[in-house]
Write a structure and sequence with these properties.
Alpha-Beta Plaits; single chain; three-stranded mixed β-sheet; DNA polymerase, domain 1
Length: 341
């Protein structure tokens, strides 16, 4: 989807259409941009940058607090549209998915065009599609002509398509790996594909995988039943605090949001993990695994409250707080609730 969070806000509030919009935290505090509309991007506003910096770059920027529940609702409708064409849909996030349409009965390009039309007509939003013989190529292609783009890369054109692109475009290449690759004098995917085994060996165990990807060899299947491993919520506070009441309210809000996510997926969890970052940036986590799986907000909040008592919150200032549930079990897995609390 194109600038998904920001586009949903512009859809719901017509006054925002045509204006630079950023969804994220408070620009007066330590808020971060979650999504920026295409009107904001020419000013240099990008996701993950501090909201205060975004406002300096674009003084007319409209800052909107995120509404995750609304985005999740639109996402559910989106995935129903995708599944009309193939059952092989692998959700990557709320606004992105892979589809395997090799047995769908129509040319992939025609399916993509129809999907884009259906999304626009039914959701009022635009999407960009990338088509390729593997997930890596399709993903890169989907980002090439945003917004409202459609890029097709035939199998025989994969290497020439990838060759001039920067190595940072490859799946699994983050900032650290990108710096290591560039330290070898390699800037493009084509240069990486042509590198000698001796040169690649300096990249360590990931060298062989990176070389295959650089040649467009990606054997990962589209997995429609990829299990959720964890669900989390966290927030960087606008001001560091020792206020346990304020932290407690956040834990309650996180518990409610996580309960909604668990029930949307028909899932339960077994472990609650609390994450705190103190004002000096020290990070601590505390976890507890319960005997019975749960999906209730009151259980999540209760355990998070007990875990925060095992930290120095209240005595030391906290700048970030988060809650994660893991040990996810699906709706089809049998379980027995405890008779007594």
């Amino acid at each position: 989807m194109d600038a998904f969070f920001a586009s949903v806000e512009q859809l719901d509030n017509p006054e925002l259409k045509g204006k630079p919009v950023a969804v994220g935290g408070d620009p007066q505090g330590r808020g971060v941009v979650s999504a920026a509309s295409y009107e904001a991007r020419p000013f240099g506003v990008r996701s993950a940058m501090p909201m205060s910096q975004a406002v300096r770059l674009c003084p007319e920027l409209v800052c909107v607090r995120p509404r995750i529940g609304r985005y999740a609702e639109v996402s559910r409708r989106l995935h129903l549209i995708l599944k009309r064409w193939t059952p092989l849909v692998e959700a990557v996030s709320l606004d992105e998915a892979y589809l395997d349409v090799s047995d769908a009965g129509l040319a992939a390009e025609e399916i993509a065009r129809r999907l884009k039309e259906e999304i626009r007509e039914e959701l009022g939003l635009s999407a960009s599609a990338g088509i390729g013989p593997c997930k890596l190529v399709a993903k890169i292609a989907s980002d090439m002509r945003k917004p409202d783009g459609l890029v097709v890369v035939e199998a025989e054109r994969v290497e020439s398509f990838l060759a001039p692109l920067p190595v940072g475009r490859l799946w699994g290449v983050g900032p650290v790996t990108e710096r290591r690759i560039k330290a070898l004098g390699i800037e493009t995917i084509g240069q990486l594909a042509a590198a000698t085994p001796r040169t690649l060996s300096r990249l360590g165990p990931s060298a062989a995988t990176l070389a295959r990807l650089a040649r467009g060899e990606d054997l990962r299947p589209v997995s429609s039943d990829r299990a959720t491993r964890s669900i989390s919520c966290e927030r960087t506070l606008e001001e560091d605090t020792r206020d346990l009441v304020r932290l407690d309210r956040l834990l309650e809000a996180f518990a409610q949001e996580i309960q909604g996510s668990l029930r949307d997926e028909g899932a339960r969890a077994r472990t609650v993990t609390l994450k705190l970052r103190y004002s000096d940036f020290e990070l601590v986590t505390r976890s507890r695994t319960l005997r019975s799986p749960f999906d209730e907000a009151d259980v999540i909040a209760r355990e998070a409250r007990s875990l925060i008592l095992r930290t120095q919150a209240g005595r030391r200032k906290v700048r970030l707080v988060g809650v994660t549930v893991s040990g996810i079990t699906g709706r089809d897995e049998p379980y027995q609730r405890a008779l007594f609390p």
